[in-house]
Amino acid sequence: MEILEYIVENRLILIPVLYILGEFIKKTSFIKDKFIPMVLLLVAVVFSILMGGDTIINEIIQAVLVAGATVLGNQMIKQVNKEE
After folding, report:
1. In this predicted model, what pLDDT tens digit does every residue of 11-46 receive, in sequence order?
2. Mean pLDDT of the chain
3. CA 50, CA 2: separation in Å to the nearest integer?
4. What pLDDT was estimated at residue 1?
5. N or C, where is the chain less crowded by C-beta within 10 Å?
6. Cα(21)–Cα(41) distance, rounded to whole angstroms?
């Protein structure tokens, strides 16, 4: 089972948006790296609610899934490129 099976189709656009935002935040050093996932989650919640279409609880769940997929994807890229 994959996480993408649970994400509503119109929320998938948030994954690359959050990824790019996370990379931008990381390069600006405005926010410490350990807080980037939390910032991405908050942004995902706001965007998901603004996109509307369901109850607030479902929108928050979608935001958590989207933010999780973004962070998971980022970590997978880092681990694959990691030299040991």
Report:
1. 999 999 999 999 999 999 889 999 999 999 999 999
2. 91
3. 25
4. 53
5. C
6. 11
For residue 25, which amino acid is it? I
Closest of 21, 15, 18, 7 to residue 61, by C-alpha: 7
Question: In the 8-state DSSP scheme, what is residue 29?
Answer: T
Q: Work out the burial of residue 1: count CB atoms within 10 Å of its CB; fewer than 13 is exposed, 13-18 middle, 19 or more buried.
A: exposed
Give CA separation, 75 vs 6, 37, 51, 53, 71, in Å: 20, 11, 27, 30, 6
Q: Domain limits at 39?
A: 32-76
Going through 4-84 in order, the beta strands assigned E by DSSP cover: none
Residue 22: inside a domain, yes or no?
A: no
